[in-house]
Structures are given as structure tokens and as C-alpha cells.
Known about the structure:
Blueprint: H1 4-9, H2 12-29, H3 36-43, H4 47-75, H5 77-98, H6 103-117, H7 120-128, H8 136-144, H9 149-164, H10 166-187, H11 200-205, H12 210-241, H13 245-261, H14 263-273, H15 275-294, H16 300-328, H17 333-362, H18 366-392, H19 394-398
Helix pairs in contact: 2-6, 2-7, 2-8, 2-9, 2-10, 4-5, 4-6, 4-7, 4-12, 4-17, 5-6, 5-7, 5-10, 7-8, 9-10, 9-13, 12-13, 12-16, 12-17, 12-18, 13-16, 14-15, 14-16, 15-16, 15-18, 17-18
Amino acid sequence: MVNRDFLKAGHPPTLLSAFLYFDLSFMVWVMLGPLAVQIARDLQLDAAQRGLMVAVPVLAGALLRMVNGIAVDRIGPKLTGAIGQLVVLAGLLISWWFGVHSFAQVLLLGIVLGQAGASFAVALPLASRWYPPEMQGIALGIAGAGNSGTVFASLFAPTLAAHFGWSNVFGLAAIPLGIVFVIYLILAKDSPDRPPPKSLPEYLRVFREGDAWWFMFFYFVTFGGFVGLASSLSFYFNDQYGLDPVLAGYFTAACVFAGSLVRPVGGALADRVGGIWALSIMYGVAAVALIVVSFGLPQAWMALLVFVIGMLALGMGNGSVFQLVPQRFRSEIGVMTGLVGMTGGIGGFYLASSLGYSKQLTGSYQAGFLLFAALAVLALLGLTAVKSRWRTTWGAASGLGRI
């Protein structure tokens, strides 16, 4: 709980600015998804191009997380975040002023918006470095709650596009981003306990660990499923059930809200019953949900219900993965956060793009959903294969919680 000791221990203005920066950044990161129906109609994009359009910001955000993570070590989180926000603001304002008139231009904008998705690697260390180990959970929980910004994109972007045109949404989005940027410059402050920069061999050392690859794959499925669906569901509901862009955005927002809300719940559940057990359940639930929706349910509300269940499982899975990572990689948590976060974004790119290509090549989204469900099953099997070794080695010695 946020109590007096917590408020005295850290730097609340920095924590607030980190949350706002993260929240608004995630809002614009997935903005092309809720606008996909209107953009695809005006630019005459096919299903594969539409899927790639919403997937590119996710991939760019994934790759830029590692860049931002290194920059945080070298020049500090505040300056890194300020540069990132300026890049995103410039991209939005240029797109609004000159317009987006081709598929190539919308992909270029998607790359710029990827910088907003990379805010994960900045906002979390900016906030967490102010707090002692026993308060890291609540500090990261508050800063990390910024992933709820994806809900705002689904709620407001289609409605604003219907009233003002989708290109003007880019200019409108720059207004709250600009306000948050000013707040960030005034309130955010780097911690005096800044650790020394890591060398390149230190960044690469974790690649020798097989467990690092397992964690990257597990997050590829959980966060990849979450952000991939958050980017794709607007055009899915429009195409599959004929919902208008605004209503499709509301349906998407409900799914994204469910997945965002329960991330801390997943971590708490993992603390209670063990991360491996919790994660196993969530992979099973997510796989079943994706298989069910792949067959094309007859009513949109039925699909909404199943997607909400799937997003709940994926959102809780995100929290469960990061309940386990610090126990295994306690001294390499910064590097592992960047790597795991990067592969999660790559998973989102894969899901969003595969749904578009599935529709383009087969006339149905089924293959895309079934392939990702198969990855969830593979993750479950992998988790089953390593759990005994984990529990008898680092899990038994960590002393940080149940696995």
C-alpha cells in the first residue's frame, strides 16, 4: 500500500511523471490499431498491409527498448525519456501537418511511434531507482500501470477520427503528450544512486544462459499476445462482424482494459501460488480462448467475452513472468527487463502481422489465431519441462518468493 513511509522513501514527483510519460506513450504506441479501419479505407490497403501497419510500431518499440535501455545507463533516464518524447511529438505533428498519403508513410510513422513503446525501458528505471528493494513492487506497479494508456487509444481515437478525420487525430494526440512532456521536464529527476554504465560483454553475458531464452519466449507469448490483440482487434471486429470503427474501438477497449487491469493481480497470484503454477494456468486459458475465437463465433458479443477471458489470462501472465525473472536474474534484472520486454514486443508484431497475412492468404483469421495458440501450448510444455530443475536449483535458493 502507498503509505507515509513509501512517500518519504522515494520521490513522488518523479514517480508521477514516470507514470504519465508511460501512460501517454502507450496510448500513441498502439494508435494505428484503433485507426486501422479508417486509414485502410482511405489508403486502400489490403488485409496484409493493414496487419503490417499495426504491427510495425510494436516491432519498432520492441527493438528500441534495448536502445533506450543502453541510453538510460549512459546518459540517465530523464534525458533519454525527454529525447524519446520529442521524437514522438515531432512525428505526430509532422504527420498531422503534412498528412499521411501512402502505405510507406504510415509505416514510417509506425517506426516513430515505436519510440513511444520503448518508454517501458525508461519509465521503470526512472521511478524504481528512487526506492529501496522492499518498495520496488509498489513503485514499479504504479509506474507500470501506464500500460493502461492502450485503453485510451481504443476509446477515443476512432471517435475523434469520425468527427475530425484520422489525420487530425495525430495533431490532437500531440496536445496531451505536450502537456505531459512539460510536467515531465519540471517534475522528473534522476536518482542520485545511479549505477555505473555496463560494458557490452555484461549486456551479452545473459545470452549464455538457457533460462534467459526461456523467459524471453514466455514473455513473447504473454505480452506479445496482449499487445498484438490490442493492436488488431479493432479491425478484426470491423471486418468479422461489421461493427463500425467507433463500436469496434469500444469492444477493443474492453478487452485491453481487462488485460491491463490484471497485470498486478497476476504478480500477486504468482506470489501466492507460485509463478510456474500461475503461468501454466494462464497459458492453458489463453490457448483455449484463441482456439475458440479462431472458429469465428456467430455474434460479436460472444467473441468479446472470449477475448476478454484470453486477455485476462495474458495480462496476468505478464505479471507472473516478471514475478519469476527477478528471482532467477537478480543481479542482471536491468538487462533482462530490456531483453524480455523486447521479445514481448516482437511477439506482438508477429501476432498482429500474422492475422493480416492469414486473412489475406486464406480469407480467414483462423490460421493466425491457431498458430499463436500453438505457441501458448508450446510455452506451457516448455514450462512443464523446466519447472523441476528451476524448483530444485535457483528456485530453492532464491529466498525471494514461491516459483
